[in-house]
Amino acid sequence: MSFIGSGAPVFVARMRAARALPEDDQQRLLRAFLDRYETAHALTEPYPDVVRTLTALRSDGHRLGICTNKPERPARHVLDHLGLSALFETVVGGDTLSVRKPDPAPLHAAAEALGAGPLLYVGDSETDAETAAAADVRFLLFTEGYRRSAVETIAHAARFDRFGDLPGLIAGALDGAALAAPRPPA
């Protein structure tokens, strides 16, 4: 069983269940986890080519935002640690709004902060795919992330396993040529 994905509350609930700890401990354990999580960003490393790819996309005039179930403050700490904060115009975390992904509201909030223009959502999980579908946004699936299902079962307009391929997919999507309509799960 994977414990990662779906945000901190779900992560803690999975860990608590695996250790057979009572549900009454959930909030205490979540607070303790988040306290430690605030400073654990130093252990985070980007996937290969992420920094170069994001820098190139930004240089090409793309507006970038983040929509994550990770709490906003730790997400911003990670971006600061990686030197990526300046590339993103908005960060919508799992605690930014009263709802979290797969509800479309966080993605809508990120899109609103970025302003008008074509919108693509890049993610690595079933939750990301569900969020994109609920928001009626084309979804690009990074296949090497935190998904738990086979790639073929996750709705996506295109998929990639190397971040260096992302600019080409985005260019094709914006030209309207490279991406078909989102594929439903098999």
From TrEMBL:
<dbReference type="InterPro" id="IPR050155">
    <property type="entry name" value="HAD-like_hydrolase_sf"/>
</dbReference>
<dbReference type="GO" id="GO:0006281">
    <property type="term" value="P:DNA repair"/>
</dbReference>
<dbReference type="GO" id="GO:0005829">
    <property type="term" value="C:cytosol"/>
</dbReference>
<keyword id="KW-0378">Hydrolase</keyword>
<dbReference type="GO" id="GO:0008967">
    <property type="term" value="F:phosphoglycolate phosphatase activity"/>
</dbReference>
<dbReference type="InterPro" id="IPR023198">
    <property type="entry name" value="PGP-like_dom2"/>
</dbReference>
<comment type="pathway">
    <text>Organic acid metabolism; glycolate biosynthesis; glycolate from 2-phosphoglycolate: step 1/1.</text>
</comment>
<dbReference type="InterPro" id="IPR023214">
    <property type="entry name" value="HAD_sf"/>
</dbReference>
<dbReference type="InterPro" id="IPR036412">
    <property type="entry name" value="HAD-like_sf"/>
</dbReference>
<protein>
    <recommendedName>
        <fullName>phosphoglycolate phosphatase</fullName>
        <ecNumber>3.1.3.18</ecNumber>
    </recommendedName>
</protein>
<dbReference type="InterPro" id="IPR006439">
    <property type="entry name" value="HAD-SF_hydro_IA"/>
</dbReference>
<dbReference type="Pfam" id="PF00702">
    <property type="entry name" value="Hydrolase"/>
</dbReference>
<comment type="similarity">
    <text>Belongs to the HAD-like hydrolase superfamily. CbbY/CbbZ/Gph/YieH family.</text>
</comment>
